[in-house]
Structure formats: C-alpha cells, structure tokens
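Example 5.3 — Phosphatidylserine synthase
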Amino acid sequence: FRRAHTLTVLFILTCALGYVTLLEETPQDTAYNTKRGIVASILVFLCFGVTQAKDGPFSRPHPAYWRFWLCVSVVYELFLIFILFQTVQDGRKFMKYIDPHLGVPLPERDYGGNCLIYDPGNDTDPFHNIWDKLDGFVPAHFFGWYLKTLMIRDWWMCMIISVMFEFLEYSLEHQLPNFSECWWDHWIMDVILCNGLGIYCGMKTLSWLSLKTYKWQGLWNIPTYKGKMKRIVFQFTPYSWVKFEWKPASSLRRWLAVCGIIFVFLLAELNTFYLKFVLWMPPEHYLVLLRLVFFVNVGGVAMREIYDFMDDPKFHKKLGQQAWLVAAITATEFLIVVKYDPYTLTLSLPFYITQCWILGIILVLTWTAWRFFIRDITLRYKEIRRQKQEHRHEKDKCLSNGDGHSALLDEPNGNKPRERKL
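Solution (predicted structure tokens):
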C-alpha cells in the first residue's frame, strides 16, 4: 500500500510539473531553466524520500516529517560535494545563482576593541559598549543552546561544549576577527547569560518531559474542545521519553564516543563562522539561518541514534543513517573551508595558546590513561593481593589447631560432625 501510494504521489507531481511546462513557453534563459530544473528534481526526490525512506527513532509530530529532513540532508550533502569540486572563484560565483547579492567580499566585524563596561569618556551613554553587543545574536545564542540542550540532554556535556567554544574563540581570533570579543562578552554575556540561561531552561523542559504522563488518546475520542486543542499541541511533544545517561567514565568506549560527540559539535559550530567567511555570506543572511534550522532538526535525530547505538549495541548493531549523514556533512563543510581559504586556516597559533592546548591535551590523555588503564591494573593488583592475604590467613588458622587436623567444615551430617584432614 505504501509503495502504491508513493507511485501515485510521484505520478501526480510529475504530471503537474509537466502540465506547467507545457502551458508556458519555455524561456530562452539557460540559467533560469537550469535553476528551475534543479528545483523540480529536488522536489521529486523529496517527495519520493518522504514516503519511502527508512523511519528514524522519532514518531512525533509525524514520521514523514523526520524522513523529509533525512532527504534534505542528502540534498545538502550533494550540494556541498558540488561546491567542494569547484574552484574558489566558481564556487563563490555559484552562490550568486542562489542570491544575486552574494559573491561579494565582506568585512568581518570585530566585537573587541573598547572593553570598558562603564566608559566615563562617553558623556551621552557610558554603557554604550554593552548596548553595542546586544544585537540579534543574543536571542540566537539563547534559543540555540536551549535547543542543543534538548538534543544532548545532559547538563555537563552542554556546559563543557559551551566553555570549550569560548576557548576556541580565544585561540582562533587571530584568524577570524569575528571571534575577537571582550572578556565580559565571552564569559558573562555568552557563557553565563545566553548559554547558561538557555541550558537551564532546556534542562527544566527536559525535567517536565521526563515527568509527563505519556498516555495518547485519539483526537475524536476526546469529548471537550479544550482536550482536543491540548491533544493537538501535545502532538508536537515526544511519543515517549528516553533519559540520556552518557556515563563517559564507565568504559573507554563510552569515553571516546563522548569525546567524539563533543569534537563534532565544536567542529560544526566553527564551520558556521568559517563557511560564511570563505563563501562571503553576511551573518544575517537567510542561508545561515536555514543551516542552523537544518542542524536543529537533524541533530536531535542523530543524537538519539548515537545514544541508542551506545546504550544497546546488541540491538542497534549499526549507527543510524542520520548520524552518518551529519558526520559526513560536518566533514565536507570543513573540507570546503580548507580548500577555499587554506591560508587563513594555517595561520600559526600564538605561542601561549599552543602551550595551553598542549597542556590541556596532556592532561586529558593522562586522565584517560589513569582512569582506564593504570587504575584498573592497580585495582586488579590490590584484589589479587587481598585474596592472597585471606588465603594465607585461613591457612595459618588451620595450622594453629594443633595435630594437623582442622574442623573447617563442621556441617551436621546426621548427629556427627564432619572433619576434613589437612
């Protein structure tokens, strides 16, 4: 039935597209016809994928919604591959076909400079530095971290990623001026206010979802209109709830997996800034916003697939398809950045920054070696030593009985005690 339904939808869509092309006279503009043909091909593919792609772990608001984003992931990955195989000039010119205003070099905004919270030299507005930093990215930071918390479902991992990205901004501000910010912009506005408040609200939402009673009832079986409206709203909440317990210190496998998740998250965050830098896209452009909306939808599915694979590898024998696509997209975006501007990416880090990163890597490797190798060997050695001491103590106790006999087992056998000769 599903396959017949798919063929019917594809047939209707193809007939509609053919009918439109037959009614109007085909323009002689090659670029316009190419653009229109590509869009029509993508629509047909999305229609096929929404009905035929494999279902993911989510079923709300509808499985077709998540199949749609899976197909969008394939289209986006193919687009990135196409951009990757172009020259730098042709790749930037190609962006003009999407938006004629693109393809123009843009100056990077520097958020550093005067870092005085209270500027006594400005008589009109001493707090002008704070107001200058309060742009549209402040609510974007808050809502972004609210949604990331709903994906990761762990307070510690969210805080680690948030703080690590600020360290990356400190480390890479010599490459992108956009990373240059005041200290209070890094730690007070970003980490504490925007990111911290978003993570807090996200954790409160997760607590509500975990305590909510999941009892679904058909819409037409609900007698009141208020109940019907409530049921429609709850259709956009999860069908059931799974609490993520990452437990990174429980085994070496889980520790490496959590480190890999944090690495991919940070790389995807960096790709946002580097892509708009190498492709000459302004930060407020709708393509930047669409990319963030895309990652919000596919990231939640990918995190659930990763957690299911880690939590029960016997049942989930292979990683989910959306998780593989997200990893491939992140890697392809990074390759585009490397190809389009290798000079910026290879600017050497300042010496003190290099020292800090080397020290941090050494500390992480040292803790990993101690926790999963040295500590286990030490505990195993102590356990063997304790067993030997107990065995020696029992042997000395047996010999202290005198004539070479011991009543270690005085179990009743009828009315007579049973003795064991040493």
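Remark. The longest strand covers residues 405-406.
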